[in-house]
Amino acid sequence: MEGHAEERLCGKWRVACGFYNYNLRDVFTWRLLKTVIMGQVLSLLICGTAVSCQYLANAGVETPMLQSFLNYALLLLVYTTILATRKGERNIVQILKTKWWKYLVMSLADVEANYAVVKAYQFTTLTSIQLLDCFVIPVLMLLSWFFLKTRYRLVHFLAVMVCLLGVGAMVGADILAERNQGSTSDVVLGDGLVLLSAVLYAVSNTCQEYTVKNLSQVEFLGMMGLFGTLISGIQLAVLETQAVAAIKWDLRIAMLFAVYALCMYALYSFMPVVVKMTSATAVNLSLLTADLFSLFCGLFLFHYKFSALYIISFVVITVGFIMFNAVPTYTALPEDDPADQPAEGSSDHLLAANRDTQRAETLTAVAAL
């Protein structure tokens, strides 16, 4: 009896930590590899926006709201048009009748998050932005815990810590390489804007995860395009009319705007696919490597100094991302005790199961017998 109790206690500890009797084939699956690759594609798209923004800034163009407006306008033209052509309850008119204010709040959070983080570069240092921007991850985990009922295991928290250590290595490399740290005109205001943007991004990403997993990706992108265009268009007219009028347009400037808008459009279109496969938290962990891709491009385009810490940072963040996705989270149910669940959990209890579908279905069928 005592031996049974001890075995049960050990079993609960393994389940709580997320450590089961894994074979390497159970952990390093094609699904996990695909998740890692897709996460890095998102980072490369963000790198594209960062490089184009840097070239625009070097040309004296600072119009973040115009750049955001172009992205939302593309989403409007494609996905909102698709919604408008649908019939029945999935038509845009029916969606607006019942859920317009929810999508308005979601889009407002997204637009203002983009604006706040870009504005922060005018007041605080690059180091502060890189570090404080990571605040989105704990906020997102907290929102997911309460609103999406996502439950994390010990290995997920360890994975987040590993990723943040990688970010620390990247920031340390920037300091050692004496990279330009930007403005220090009002550090408190700048840091506050970064934290605000992190919270708003977390709100937007939580809404995105719920929508793409319970409704549809087209509905999310269509509503984001509609309200995002409206909100960013108003802010553009109020805040950046003079800045836009002062742009000296030529083919190079137009191409940079086009590259930025297309990278953002691809990012917004592709991100819901990855979120549906994993979670918004996992996606944000993968995006931590975006700054590193930008730095690698900067070595050739802007003559940044190289540091071996950049490579170490990339490896550490990637390891943390793999740790997070190798063990599935689960959804809390009434009177749900994760320690009493089977180690393989049914598909109803998993949000981001990174094992192959066939194995999960087989184990569920066995449990039913």
UniProtKB/TrEMBL annotation:
Give TM segment ranges.
Answer: 35-57, 69-85, 129-148, 154-175, 187-204, 220-239, 251-270, 282-302, 309-327
Pfam families named among the record's database cross-references: SLC35F
GO CC annotations on file: membrane
Q: Which UniProt keywords apply?
A: Membrane, Transmembrane, Transmembrane helix, Transport
**Could you tell me the superkingdom of the organism this chain comes from?**
Eukaryota
Topology relative to the membrane, per the entry?
A: Multi-pass membrane protein
Q: Which residues form a coiled coil?
A: none
Any idea where this protein resides?
Answer: Membrane
User: What InterPro entries is this protein classified in?
Assistant: EmrE-like, SLC35_F1/F2/F6, SLC35F_Transporter
Q: Could you cite one Gene Ontology molecular function of this protein? A: transmembrane transporter activity
The record's similarity note reads:
Belongs to the SLC35F solute transporter family.
- Tell me the function of this protein: Putative solute transporter.
From the Swiss-Prot or TrEMBL record, give the protein name: Solute carrier family 35 member F2-like protein
- Give the originating organism: Lates japonicus (Japanese lates)
